Amino acid sequence: MFEDDLEDDDIEYDRTCQNCTFYHQDGDEWEYGVCMNNTEIFETYLDEIFESDSFSCCRELYLQNRIEGLREACELFEEIEVVEIPEGEDIVEYLWYENKKNQNVDEIIEYLYNTDINIVKRAINAISPYVYIGNQGAFEILLKYYLSLGPAESLEEVYLRKDIIDMLSRYESDRRVIEAYVYELERSPSNNTTRQLYTLLLERLYECDSNIVFDLLFDLLNKKKFSQKIKKRIIEVMESDYSLRQENQFYYDLSKTE
Fold first, then answer.
1. Cα dist. 101→119, 129, 136 in Å?
2. Per-residue pLDDT averaged across 200-212, rounded?
3. Which whole number is the average pLDDT over 198-219?
4. pTM for the predicted model, two decimal places
């Protein structure tokens, strides 16, 4: 039910299935639908159902479970919420997007911590669409996993982290992401194997909030010894905002680190 169809937000709906938030109406049979309170039987078809707004992809399963929308609802009834569709948005696409954005993806967690790197890669691929679309739960899961990693020691580990950083880059307004970038510089050695990783991290930090970056990198340079080349690149990121450099009382004096 959409806001444009309502004249009063305080309308009380009849306790019928079609007025329940769990009811999903079939696009081909308007008088019928399915209770999605228990979506396990339709789990493998959910994306197709929401995209097509019908059960054509699992017709037999639908026919076995369909109910009349006008029948009296059960004790699990929850009144439908009013959804405001932004002007100009396609309704089906918007609802599909909102479903993805709010979907629980906790089942992916165990696969991220598997000892088989191939299973981990598949888990990363599985969670990536949700992270990119703005699913906060997926972001939290990915960030926690990224922070749990040890030093990058192989190219395979470097490539995996580069994929994760690309996903996290959508959330750089969150200080924790910036801290995670700097933590990677701290935990992973600087060598030929990790050169790509260091380059990507410094590129991302250059785009982040300069006030936060300056302080974090300042602390990092006091905690870890880098080669002159890497130290110079880090300082270049710190100095990317000239006005900040001039005003910051902790401006880094190169002569003190030689």
1. 24, 9, 8
2. 94
3. 95
4. 0.63
* Cα distance between residue 214 and residue 111, in whole Å: 36
Q: CA-CA distance, 151 to 177, in Å (whole number)?
A: 17
> Mean of the pLDDT values across residues 130-147?
95
Q: Given the structure tokens 């990119």, which residue do they identify?
A: 132
Tokens representing residue 67 in the block: 């109910």
pLDDT at 140 over 80: yes
Local structure of 242: helix, strand or coil:
helix
Buried b (16+ CB within 10 A) or exposed e, 113-139: eeeeeeebbebbeebbebbebebebbb
Candidates 151, 157, 131; CA nearest to 143 is 131
Which residue, 100, 168, 109, is CA-closest to 133? Answer: 100
Length of the chain in residues, anyone? 258
Q: Using CA atoms of 227, 229, 234, 235 in order, give the dihedral in degrees to the nearest 10.
A: 110
Task: Kindly tell me if the per-residue pLDDT of 245 is higher than 50.
Answer: no
Give strand ranges (E) for the chain: 23-25, 32-35, 67-68
pLDDT single digits (tens) 16-28? 888 888 888 877 7
Owner of token pair 């959804």? 83
C-alpha distance from residue 167 to each of 116, 139, 140, 181 (Å)? 22, 9, 12, 12
What is the Cα–Cα distance from 154 to 195, expressed in whole angstroms?
A: 11
Beta bridge partners of residue 83, listed in sequence order: 2
Per-residue pLDDT band for 76 (boundaries 50, 70, 90) equals: confident
Contact predicate 190/152, CB 8 Å: no
